[in-house]
Amino acid sequence: FSKRDKYKRIGQAVLGFGMLFLGLKIMADGMSPLQGSQLFRDILLQISDNPILAITLAAIFTFLVHSSAATIGIIMILSMQGMIPLIPAIFLIYGANIGTSFTAILSSLGSSREAQRVATAHLLFKVAGVVIFLPLTIPFANLISSFTNIPGHQVANAHTLFNITIALAFLPFTDFFASLLEKIVPEKKKESDIEPKYLDYSL
Fold first, then answer.
1. What share of the chain is helix, strand, coil (3-state, %, to 5)?
2. Which helix (H) or strand (E) holds 69?
């Protein structure tokens, strides 16, 4: 109700965090009955035994809800309630990171070439990160376990460390990556020399 924009922004930020944590609490309460469901446990067991299936399902779910944060929140809740061990949770984190890049790809369709390159870079960045981390999942899980024994914290730490590590790993190859993207998503050929120069076709 404040008339000052500054206070409105602060209020919106606080409200946003409150809604986020309320949403996690509601999801946790809603999933608690699943602890006694044998079918749900069997599904999670199948995911635990098949990393590719876990990554694929998490990627599809993240794409459908358009939010990796929601997927990570659900993974945290499953982990906190003892329904999923750390290693399968890490596989689901990999999938969530890939799935969130599909949203960017979809948003870039019909936009400028630069926007399409950014979306493509996001996808390649996440997929390459997962390919690098996949063989190292067990040592990665051991590293995460050494930080804390709290399952929810382990999931959050794994997600954070994964993204920071791949960002630092790819940083030295930025120029090469930019050149590669220009080849993957080349400039459109101009049909004529006379055309609008400053119109954004996506609008």
1. 80, 0, 20
2. helix 68-80
> What integer pLDDT is reported at residue 77 of this predicted model?
86
Length of the chain measured in residues: 203
The overall average pLDDT reported for the chain is 86
Query: Cα 96 to the chain's mean position, in Å?
Result: 4
**Which of the four pLDDT bands, split at 50, 70 and 90, describes residue 192?**
low
CB-count burial class (<10 Å; 0-12, 13-18, 19+) for 154: buried
The SS3 of residue 81 is coil
Res 188: pLDDT:
73
Q: Residue 167 and residue 170: Cα distance in Å, rounded?
A: 5
Q: How far apart are CA 53 and CA 50, in angstroms?
A: 5
Q: Are 96 and 126 in contact (CB under 8 A)?
A: no
**Nearest Cα to Cα of residue 96 among 45, 139, 33, 160:** 160
Q: Which of the residue ranges 49-53, 85-89, 118-122, 161-165 has the most confident prediction, judged by mean pLDDT?
A: 161-165
How far does the chain reach from its first CA to its final CA, in angstroms? 34
Q: Which residues contact 187 (CB under 8 A, 6 or more apart)?
A: 113
pLDDT of amino acid 10: 94
C-alpha 110/C-alpha 188 separation (Å) is 12
What is the value of pTM for the model shown? 0.77
Q: Is 51 helix (H, G, I), strand (E, B) or coil?
A: helix
Q: C-alpha distances in angstroms, 11 versus 8, 15, 160? A: 5, 6, 26
